[in-house]
Design goal:
The chain is an alpha/beta fold and 1541 residues long. It contains 70 helices and 27 strands. The longest helix has 25 residues.
């Protein structure tokens, strides 16, 4: 009941019992004092006359007496007590009051002892006045000081006090409210009133409130006050603790056990007379019984309880009580010793969490297992927000509404899961549940916030049957080495309520972790009270024999636990993180918002500020440590820039290109929404540092972030960047995004495109002014061996820096060294800094390495590990070996390092540790620490020193690392190492496409092959590849690379074929099939080369080569078929550059066919310059002249050749039509699709194909002179000769295919091109007129139409040109003949060009033709289905007839003065469609978006159109009106510059 507003007239109506209840429930004093007033028959009428002296006369201590009088006056006046002190004082325990008086107020210890004796807790002190202190014997001076300092607390922060030392058991029982309980599968938090109470107390109180209204309320069971432990123990404090322990013990009894306990009290005389039956009958709860026993037996109540427990056979509870009695006795005898144990527990907690580092960075992930909590505990769970939580296994079904989960998600992001969601395969679970990126909060026994049958809380039996298996599976999942490393993970059992028996899910989950090898050592327990720990410890020890004491915290309160953990580093900014916003304002970056942007590491404008006290020694130590890490080769941190801005500090060294990069960032066109700036740099020369330096100095103008998660889809990253741009404000703020160490320019460009589309979509609904600020600038740092070459070949905005310093930079480094000498010991040992200071001097690096490796003993594991790191870092720039893996390799006990901080890895690696650095690695499966050599140049120097001084060469180190089993077991860190080893062995180093400096193999294999002894290197390389193939059994690239080595360097073709077949067994795809073809091709070329050196060719050799050629073509044709299956992006031979479609099979078949043609042309009867013999060969290849009819000398050699050719006639006659199809394929391939970032490769391929086509024409086609002679010799066959002549002309000019004609659009447009197209048009007109089989001229008809369209664009007024109507008539006739299921897309493409409706007409068939075009292009042009863009050759203009078709070259002419690279960027970004010259020449089509599909609208006609760029239309299935420009591609109409109306 509430008496806070009672009037004095109502108080006097209270009975004695109601006064007692008010004292225990509202004033919250000890039952003993309340009982004393009850014994003295103090009713409400009497109480209103009581003064403090009257209470003191009853032996009530001064503290409670002041509190009673104060609250009584409050009731009389009807007003709440107005104290001059802050309200939080009321929460202080007696211990904390004592601590504050001693440490903060500096009060004389005798006065403190006097206050302690009078039981002054915080709620009592809150009511004190100066006279109350004086009456305690405290002099006026100290009394005034105490009151004054208490008042001063109002204007300052709350003092940090140690929570109470040994009141855990009291608090466990004294802070809970009674409620009706249902026994489920685990015990709820300990409560004051026993859960055995099944009937509520029906006795009621009628109370009149000040308003005059009478209310009826149930009587509440009195609660004992939580009496804090005193610094100097007294009899009263012992009684208080004994009473609390008695409550706890009785509360653990079940209902039937409690009845037996009361029966023993009634009937048995235990060394004293039993309690009166009337008293026990009125005692219905454990609280009542405990009070009665304490009143009757006094201090012997616990001993009586112990005897009864043993008598009723409750040995477990009796043992626990006996232990607690011993602890209580020890506390009374030596309180200072007990306080020392408390202090040790705080240090122990720090040690368990940090391993002595005083920072929480020691562990990469933390797993929490917790049971039910109560409301009072939540404020002390703030430490959960600071831990790196991987997963929380929560057994509280109310956690999501008013428990720990609800508390956590107010400030941090978490994904709420159920156990069944972890059932998929590992990678699927990680991806779907967003593990490592956000906390997974798993409800392990129901979730009351969700109302469904499956989310109910279960009793233990049902949980064991239905849910236990799923939760244990989560444990098994997390314990997999590929998920979590037990060396970098901490498991914490957070027991917020007791676990009483083994029949508890939390116990089962502990045992599940316990059974996992290597995991029991990393389990720690935090208990909310010592009694909870004792029960938990006994359960574990009785079952397993394992003593968890060393890994448990049980003497600290939750408040102490929380305070201790929150005080650990890393420290956060107390003022909050700030971001720049519009109009020079700032917004606060909330932690929860930051959690949700999982892809971004956000730089705030107040980064690092106020996290430390700048004058604190801890800050200075931290500064020295961070600077040392950076200058020794660690990655730059924001702290490094912050330190250089402090007074008297030297500015951070600016690289030569700093101003250039800053200018580029700040001077972007406001109309461009997303800009990409590439920064090419040598590894280790400061490229990333330069980019971060610019970001740091622009952090108040831009919202800056570093992309940290490269595994997320680009669209998701774009979404997060867009959110960052608008976070906390209705207006946009520009974003500066750093993409570090991007190796694939295509990925960054794709990200740029996604961001641009996301921002522009948002801008559609915003003002023009706001849209101008909606800008993202991406700085992409690209590590490469040749940054200057990359710079020259890059089309986007770019910069480069190299491993060479300018004079100004060198002077800056000299000045910085002078500064470092003042604050650091031996900065000369900061080798990464000194390498740059020496301007990357090779001699300096070699001398450092030579001195360090002096007297190296390669038999030791330390030396071998150093060699492994040097090898990896030299040949895979980003490689490393995880710290835990190094510890395991060196035999360091990881578990001891984790908890007790024994010998560290760097200690064990002495004297080589000065060459090493520790790095933080972020993978898609989380973070971990790893070791690498300080600098890449130093790694190279180590290898050179090992070879020069110790004769340890590359092949030996490589074989050593491949023979180490430890490195090839599954696991997160081991997978990363295996990938580095694989790249080192097979990844080729490309400098520039077509560059002769390109390596045939990885640099490591090339160097072993070239520099080591010839015979030895061959053997070693073979050993390396054989061993590697046994390590990487599922990787096809290893046997592929070995096959290449064998056929290129060793000419061992049988063995090469065996290894190529092994690669195909691992995975059959277009690349493995091509490797087999390459083995045959290389063998064929090798044989021909040898035969050229012979004076006489043998028919047997010719036959052998024919068979090899046939096998090669079969392999290449298989590669083509596999490529057509629309394979996912596969692993290729040595990670070759990937094209959108693997064309190597087509190139291989072409080369083999031309080689066979040359072989045939060298036969005796086809050989020479005689045109007649040449014509015989051409006729034979066409199948018009059998080999037996070819004129030749009659000799044995020719006869053998004829027999061989007869045997292979079918194969030989199929070559010409097959290679013709290959050329047609490439015509379409280069004409219809864009090359993306592989444009340079495509250009080289195109030139190669062109050269092959020239060879083909020379070998196979007849010359014009020969055709003229044929026409003269055979006048009756003149028509056929004329037809053949025109066909030959078309073939020679690559105009016999639709794609070949279309390609004429993009040739350099001049008079010669127009004349060539004119002749092509004439030829097709002739062929169309003289075609006899009308149903078979579809190809001629479509090519005729296209030639006329192109002729019109090149030469609008031409006598040879057919008009628009004539072309439409031909097309309509053709479409009628072929229907809508024709396999070729070309006729339907022409339908788009000629029959596309205008604004005032509808062509109802056009929709059908669009669908037919899409279907046929997917079937016939498989490369179109890859992730590539199709080329648009024609755009829809505003005019009529053929003039409405606007070609891309015509649009490019509008920008003749723009550099080609800049123009290409305009097209790529769609910025071209913002230019007035383009807008005036194109027609904007109206359309709609429905169900995420785009349509062009012409009256009632809706024609499906595809957005030209991914993400061009909004998600959400909203129906909207849009407009766009229209382009025609071979796979359908494309929409550009889509605008929502």
């Amino acid at each position: 009941m509430s008496h806070s507003m009672e009037s004095a007239t109502q108080i006097k109506k209270w009975t004695n019992e109601e006064v007692h209840q008010w004292l225990t429930t509202q004033v919250n004093i000890n039952h003993i004092y309340a009982d004393k007033l009850l014994e003295e028959e103090v009713s409400g009428e009497v109480l209103q006359y009581f003064q403090k002296k009257d209470l003191l006369d009853l032996n009530i201590k001064h503290g409670p007496a002041v509190k009673i009088v104060s609250m009584l006056e409050e009731l009389k006046s009807g007003l709440q007590h107005k104290s001059r002190f802050p309200a939080y004082i009321k929460k202080w325990t007696q211990e904390q009051v004592c601590q504050w008086l001693r440490e903060k107020a500096k009060v004389y210890h005798q006065y403190v002892e006097r206050i302690v004796e009078e039981e002054v807790s915080g709620d009592c002190l809150f009511c004190f006045k100066k006279n109350d202190l004086v009456e305690l014997g405290i002099k006026h001076g100290p009394a005034v000081k105490i009151i004054g300092m208490l008042e001063k607390l109002n204007s300052g922060p709350e003092p940090i006090l140690q929570p109470p030392t040994h009141i855990n058991v009291d608090q466990e029982n004294l802070q809970k409210t009674p409620e009706k309980q249902v026994e489920l599968c685990q015990a709820p938090p300990v409560q004051t009133v026993s859960p055995m109470k099944t009937e509520p107390n029906t006795e009621e109180l009628k109370i009149v409130e000040p308003s005059g209204k009478t209310v009826t309320r149930k009587k509440e069971v009195p609660k004992p006050q939580a009496m804090g432990a005193e610094m100097l123990p007294s009899k009263f404090s012992r009684t208080s603790n004994s009473l609390a322990l008695l409550y706890d013990t009785l509360d653990d009894l079940h209902l039937d056990e409690f009845k037996r306990f009361k029966s023993c009290l009634k009937d048995v005389n235990l060394n004293s007379k039993p309690i009166a039956r009337c008293h026990l009958e009125n005692s219905k709860t454990c609280t009542d019984v405990a009070n009665a026993m304490t009143k009757h037996y006094g201090e012997e109540a616990l001993n009586v309880t112990l005897q009864i427990l043993e008598r009723i056979g409750h040995n477990e509870l009796a043992a626990g009580l006996r232990r607690n009695l011993g602890l209580q006795k020890m506390t009374e005898q030596d309180p200072q010793k007990y306080l020392r144990r408390e202090t040790d527990q705080g240090d122990k907690l720090k040690s368990l969490l940090t391993c002595g580092d005083n920072t929480l960075d020691r562990y990469d992930q933390c797993v929490i297992v917790m049971n039910k909590s109560c409301t009072e505990q939540l404020e002390y769970l703030q430490f959960l927000t600071k831990l790196k939580l991987f997963c929380v296994l929560d057994f509280d079904p109310n956690s999501g509404t008013d428990g720990a989960c609800s508390f956590y998600t107010k400030s941090r992001a978490a994904n709420l899961h159920f156990p069944a969601q972890f059932q998929d395969e590992v990678n699927g679970v990680i991806k779907n549940l967003n593990l490592y990126k956000q906390t997974s909060w798993v409800f392990c026994n129901g979730r009351h916030a969700i109302q469904s049958e499956w989310d109910k809380e279960l009793n233990y039996e049902d949980w064991l049957n239905k849910t236990c298996g799923d939760v244990e599976h989560i444990v098994s999942f997390m314990c997999k080495p590929e998920v979590l490393s037990n060396r970098r993970t901490l498991v914490i059992f957070l027991l917020l309520s007791p676990v009483k028996t083994e029949r508890d899910p939390v116990y089962d989950i502990f045992m599940a972790f316990y059974k996992k090898e290597g995991w029991r050592e990393i389990i720690m327990t935090i208990c909310e009270s010592q009694s909870t720990f004792e029960k938990w410890k006994d359960l574990i020890q009785n079952k397993s024999g394992f003593d968890i004491t060393k890994q448990s915290i049980y003497e600290l309160t939750l408040s102490e636990v929380n305070g201790t953990i929150m005080a650990l580093g890393p420290h956060n900014q107390p003022s909050g993180k700030l971001l720049p916003s519009s109009d020079s304002s700032t917004v606060v970056l909330q932690q929860k918002d930051e959690d949700r942007m999982t892809a971004l590491d956000i730089l705030c404008q107040n980064q690092c500020e106020k996290a430390y006290d700048g004058n604190d020694k801890g800050f200075q130590d931290f500064k020295i440590k961070v600077e040392e890490e950076f200058y020794r080769g660690g990655k730059v941190k924001w702290w490094n820039f912050y330190f250089c801005e402090k007074p008297k500090a030297k500015p951070f060294i600016r690289r030569d290109k700093y101003d250039n990069l800053k200018t580029i960032v700040k001077s972007q066109d406001p109309k461009t929404t997303c800009v990409l700036v590439n920064l090419f740099h040598h590894p280790g020369c400061g490229g990333t540092t330069l980019a971060m330096h610019v970001m740091w100095n622009l952090r108040r103008e831009f919202r800056c972030a570093v992309l940290k998660d490269y595994t997320l889809p680009k669209a998701e990253v774009a979404f997060q960047v867009k959110n960052l741009m608008r976070l906390g404000s209705d207006k946009s703020t520009p974003v500066l995004l750093l993409v570090d160490d991007s190796k694939e320019a295509e990925n960054t460009q794709t990200l740029q495109n996604c961001i641009r589309q996301a921002v522009e979509e948002e801008n559609a609904s915003r003002s023009v002014e706001d849209s101008l600020n909606s800008k993202v600038i991406i700085i992409s740092c690209v590590r490469c061996p040749n940054p200057e070459d990359q710079y020259k070949n890059c089309a986007t905005k770019r910069l480069y820096i190299t491993a060479k310093l300018k004079k100004k930079e060198q002077d800056d480094f000299d000045e910085k060294l002078v500064e470092l000498k003042k604050s650091h010991e031996k900065p000369e040992n900061f080798y990464s800094f000194m390498i740059m200071k020496s301007n990357f001097d090779k001699k300096y690096i070699a001398d450092v390495v030579s001195n360090t490796l002096k007297d190296l003993d390669m038999s030791t594991k330390q030396a071998k590990l150093l060699a492994f790191l040097a090898l990896l870092n030299s040949y895979d720039a980003e490689s490393h070996i995880s710290t835990s893996l190094c510890e395991e390799y060196l035999g360091l006990d990881g578990s001891k390092i984790v908890f007790w901080g024994n010998e560290s890895l760097f200690d064990r690696m002495e004297p080589y540790s000065n060459l090493l650095k520790q790095v933080n690695v972020v993978e898609k499966r989380g973070k971990y620490k790893a070791i690498r050599i300080l600098h890449n140049d130093m790694a190279n120097a180590c290898l050179e020193e090992l070879d020069r001084s110790y004769k340890i060469n590359l092949s030996e180190i490589t074989l050593d690392i491949l023979h180490c089993d430890l490195f090839f077991k599954t696991g997160v860190v081991k997978d990363a190492l295996m990938l580095s080893i694989q790249r080192m062995l097979i990844e080729r180093q490309r400098r520039k496409l077509g560059d002769e400096r390109d390596t045939q193999f990885s640099p490591l294999i090339e160097k072993i092959h070239l520099q080591e002894d010839r015979e030895n290197s061959i053997s070693k390389i073979q050993d390396i590849f054989v061993k590697a193939s046994s390590r990487f059994v599922t990787k096809l690239s290893i046997p592929q690379a070995f096959a290449r080595y064998l056929y290129l360097y060793e000419q061992d073709y049988p063995q090469a074929l065996i290894w190529a077949e092994k690669a195909k067994i691992v995975q059959q795809n277009s690349y493995t099939a091509d490797t087999i073809g390459q083995v045959y091709k290389s063998n064929l070329k090798h044989n021909i080369q040898i035969e050229k050196q012979k004076t006489l060719s043998k028919p047997e050799d010719f036959e052998t080569n024919l068979k090899i050629a046939q096998q090669a073509i079969q392999a290449f044709q298989l590669a083509q078929k596999l490529a057509m299956k629309n394979e996912t992006e596969e692993e290729t031979d040595e990670y070759l550059i990937k094209t959108p479609y693997n064309t190597s099979g087509y190139v291989g078949e072409m080369e083999i066919t031309l080689t066979v043609f040359e072989m045939i042309s060298n036969l005796p009867f086809f050989e020479g310059t005689d045109p007649v013999k040449r014509m015989y060969m051409q006729s034979f290849l066409k199948g018009t002249l059998p080999i037996t009819n070819v004129p030749k000398e009659d000799n044995e050699i020719n006869s053998k050749y004829v027999d061989i050719i007869k045997e292979h006639t079918q194969f030989l006659l199929a070559l010409k039509p097959q290679v013709k199809k290959v050329f047609e394929f490439f015509n379409g391939y280069f004409t219809y699709i864009k090359g993306n970032n592989t444009g340079e490769l495509e250009s080289l391929n195109q030139k190669k194909i062109s050269d092959h086509f020239t060879r083909y024409i020379t070998l196979v086609c007849s010359s014009p002179a020969e055709i003229f002679k044929e026409r003269a010799d055979k006048p009756k066959l003149r028509l056929n000769v004329d037809i053949e002549e025109r066909r030959m002309f078309l073939e020679e000019n690559n105009a016999d295919t639709f794609a070949g004609i279309l390609a004429k659009l993009h040739q350099q447009q001049n008079i010669m091109t127009a004349e060539e197209v004119k002749k092509i048009t004439e030829s097709y007109t002739f062929l169309h007129i003289h075609s006899v089989q009308k149903r078979k001229d579809t190809k001629i008809c479509q090519n005729l139409i296209l030639a006329n369209i192109i002729l019109h664009t090149l030469k609008p007024i031409s006598n040879n040109e057919k008009c628009h109507k004539d072309l439409c008539d031909i097309l309509m006739k053709t479409l009628q003949d072929i229907g809508v299921q024709h396999p070729s897309p070309e006729p339907y493409y022409l339908a788009l060009l000629l029959l596309w409706p205008s604004s005032n007409e509808e062509n109802t068939d056009i929709r059908t033709y669009v669908n037919s075009l899409r279907n046929s292009s997917r079937r016939e042009l498989p490369y179109l289905s890859r992730k590539c863009s199709t080329i648009v050759h024609f755009y829809l203009g505003p005019k009529k007839g053929l003039q409405r078709l606007v070609t891309k070259p015509k649009l490019d002419e509008c920008f003749s003065g723009v550099p080609r690279a800049d123009l290409a960027q305009l097209w790529w970004s769609e910025g071209i469609f913002k230019e007035r010259e383009i807008i005036d020449r194109l027609y904007r089509v109206n359309g709609t978006v429905e169900q995420s599909e785009l349509y062009a609208n012409y009256g009632k006609l809706k024609i499906p159109v595809r957005p030209a760029y991914l993400g061009g239309i909004r998600s959400g299935y909203s129906k909207e009106n849009v407009s766009f420009f229209l382009g025609f591609a071979i796979d359908g109409p494309l929409a550009y510059d889509i605008k929502y109306e």
